[in-house]
Amino acid sequence: MKVNNIISKKTCIAVALLSCYGASGGVMAQPLTLEQRMAALEAQLRVTQQKLQAYEEKEHAQQRNVASSAVPAAQSGTTVQATAAQAKTEPELSAGTLKKISQYVQDDTGFKYSGYFRSGWATTTNGGPKSWAVGSLGRFGNEYDGWYNLSLKKRAWRDGDKSIWANVQFEGDLGLTQSNESFEKGMSGGGMGKLSKLYVEGNGLLPFAPEASVWVGKHTLPQYEIQLLDWKSNRTLSGAGVGIENWKLPVGALSMAITRNDIDNYSTVCAAGSSSCSDTTQVNVNIAEVRYKNLPVSENTTLELGAKYAFANQTDEQKKAQADNDYYQVKSSWLGQAILRNPILKGSNELTLQVANNSLASQFMNISSANPDFDYNSSYYGIHSGGIGWRLVDQGEFYLGEKIIMAHALVYGRGHDLYSTYSGAHTDFTTARAVIRPSWIWNQNMQTALELGYFTQKNRVNNSTSDESGYKVTLAQVYKVDTSILNSRPELRLYSTYLKALEHEIDSQTFNDGKDYQISFGVQAEVVF
Hints:
The protein is of the alpha+beta class and 529 residues long. Helices cover 21% and strands 48% of the residues. It has helices at 2-23, 25-28, 34-70, 73-89, 95-109, 134-137, 316-323, 358-362, and strands at residues 111-124, 146-159, 162-174, 191-203, 213-219, 224-226, 231-234, 239-248, 253-260, 263-266, 280-296, 302-313, 333-344, 347-357, 379-380, 388-399, 404-420, 424-443, 446-461, 464-480, 491-504, 517-528. The strands form two sheets. It has an 18-stranded antiparallel β-barrel. A two-stranded antiparallel ribbon has the order 6-7. Helix 1 runs antiparallel to helix 3 and helix 3 (34-70) packs antiparallel against helix 4. The chain is globular and about 100 Å long.
């Protein structure tokens, strides 16, 4: 009982001291530098620890005096030793208290930094490696560039539960083929970087939705990645706009946004995607999007519904030029989706159904990158004639036993009367893609992974059909920080991959020396920090 009293007193004093430190935030809120704030924090922590130590020594001495006078001499030594031993095992500051202090420092300084990058080295039996059909066969052992993003977040203002944050994100790609991959060379030279996000985020500002966040600037609603295939099932490119996220309703939560995504509309005399043709006109395009998520279906299953509409705001001159067939007609496009999420075998699963028309649906048939974008890297071309496309996407991971985990990505899609960059206007397509990655778990930090990928696709225009198919086998030894395939990073991989093109009538793919296969070897690292 006395030991419990000691612990209770220590806890009260620690809380009081920390409260005093929290109250001193008004002083620290003066215009001090980050170094000055940290120095002040360290000084106060030292004082706190010294006071706690002094109090503990005083309590130990008092307890020894009480114990020696209250028990027979034969027992006093044992009682004092037991009490002192129990008190000694108590930490000066518990892990929970230290975590709260760490979070307080982060919130008080109002600065957060995070990032991601992927990098590595690879070669083949004959020449440098080539990626092929990453969005159909899977990315593991089939991507040789390096991607990165660096995010900075700084609180600009706070009043109680209300706060305003400034957000910046820089991202880009490196070819990882040459030493001098500078930004001025651009993507063709192996280096690309851009300021992808620049926005202000407000929390607790809306009286009718205090839990929601509001943003203004260059940003977008969250993107949903099909991780094994390296594309997003749903995304709107980051553009200047305004949005509200996680507006809690009696059932579920609502998010909405409108962003500007202007496109360079090509002249009809330019070949599709031609880099040598500069005859374009910039057309104003806006994209409105709404998502209604966290709708309960069962105890552990939720549903998300979403819709997106992209529409052009054109000048009279642009409308006339398109009517005269001088430029491609920029057609509005819509997309609707439903996402079912549920746990399965100690893992999770996500089933997505999407339906779209015009350019958004055309992207469904892309063999490598199947992101549902309105444009092609800010360019717009081709004849879109109101065609419809749909696809069903299933992804997730689950444990087949204590030693086996498997991730998967499965896609089936069809479309009618759509534009293809390969087969042209009025294309019908059917595509099926399957990637599975079973891994043997040696321990929490080591796995042996086998990724198998296969796809087949048919593009049909009038009576002409083009077939594309292939498979991939990747064997890898992976060092991890946890057993999850999709949700644990950092990760280090030593791998070997066999790529085989069975049919290549759509994109005419060949590897080095005109081969229809490739054997590659590499090391790759991926980290989130």
